[in-house]
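EI: anyone free to look at a 295-residue chain?
SC: sure, send it
EI:
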Amino acid sequence: MIPVEILQKIKRIHITATRLASDVFAGEYKSVFKGRGLEFHQVREYETGDEIRFIDWNVTARSDKAYIKEYIEERELTIMILLDASRSNCFGSVEHLKKEIAAEVASVLAASANKNNDRVGLVIFTDRIEKFIPPRKGHHHILRIIREILYHESVGKKTDIPLCLEYLDKVTTRSTVSFLISDFYASGIEKPLSIANKRHDIIGIRITDPRDPDMPNVGVVSLEDAESGEARLLDTSNTGARERYNRDAKRRFGEAGKMFRSLKIDTVDIFTPVSYTEALEKFFKNRVLKRRLRG
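SC: here you go
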């Protein structure tokens, strides 16, 4: 049975996500995620300016006029939420843990998709596939997704993004818009991301805590890798040691950003002390602008 506090949290996040989907992201979402396929609509007479490649030669051959096939954009999309639930996301030095922010972001995206009548599915992963909910529509379905995100307790500890992307291909029969939500503390992901992005529209949402790339001077601390369990002592009062740690952390953060840009994968950087609403709004607006520039 789900604890009362979890039920209250589910209700609160559902209300918040639905409000944001209706009041803040409704227009931007629709502009960004238009249907990418074409669906046959009708045959009509050729008009000056129509593209010759759309001429229906069979119909034209049976009449004395040229006819073309007319298509409409396929509206319905399949949205997949790919949520990293590994141990490194259980960290937080401010008010919220990374996994709590990730859960709220995932809920807002699911509610936005549902508002636009798109199907939404969920994959929760660590170093294994923890949970899969097939894409569907509807209010009750979105509530189930939010409940699973908030109530799920992971078995695995580590992060296996390639496994998640392989699984995505197995359980989907068409291209999707897939939001991959993680802190991206993983290696060997460039090739799998490149392959997945050829079929799907992959969007990386990177959740970062202020202490991930910036260790303050707090004396001797024991640092434990949340995924491997490996621990070591770091004397943060030692300026050289602290600077090396921060420099390495910033380098890894920057390299991940360069990788996404080289693969032409859009990313949203969300920092736990800052409102994720602003980051999502900025992403939507930038993506709309890119789409207009491409014509």
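EI: The longest helix spans residues 239-262.
SC: 👍
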